[in-house]
Amino acid sequence: MRPTAEDLAAHLGLKPHSEGGLFRETYRAGGVVETPRGMRAAYTTILFLVTAAAVSRLHRLSSDEIWVFQGGLPLEFITLAPGGELSRVLLGDAAEPDASDAERVVVPQALAPAGHWQGARLAGGAHLQAERAWCLLSCVVIPGFEYEDFEMGERGALLAAYPQHAEFVRSLT
Fold this sequence. Notes:
12% of the residues lie in helices and 44% in strands. It has helices at 5-12, 155-161, 166-171; strands spanning 15-16, 22-28, 32-35, 38-41, 44-51, 56-61, 64-72, 75-80, 86-91, 106-107, 109-112, 117-122, 134-142, 150-152.
């Protein structure tokens, strides 16, 4: 039987993340690189769990971030470029396309470029009990993640800047 999100989080040692979802850093490279923001680990990785109740709210990083599907339900991964271009990617098991959204290709990984707003929510799951509706990912940040390189999106400011994407801004802030 599929584990609940609570069971999976306990098993993997995941804790609440300020952007939403649950996470645990799994690796921080020993090598460092110089950035305009100072020295950073060459890269960092986390396990990240998104549920129906705990979406990844809009945020942006000063580094590139790669999201890699690990298991569970498909995830709608949204990025918003500084110029306003919105990208929607369906992350999931590429061998099992999401029949509920046949127009979009399911991919196992996606990139959020540095400086782009990003967020994610489950793309499916109505057929499962809420506690069993989750998506597990690995996220790789290059150069490595530091909280001072992280910015949470503010609904009012994002609505003012991107009124054409109000539905996404409201659902992910």
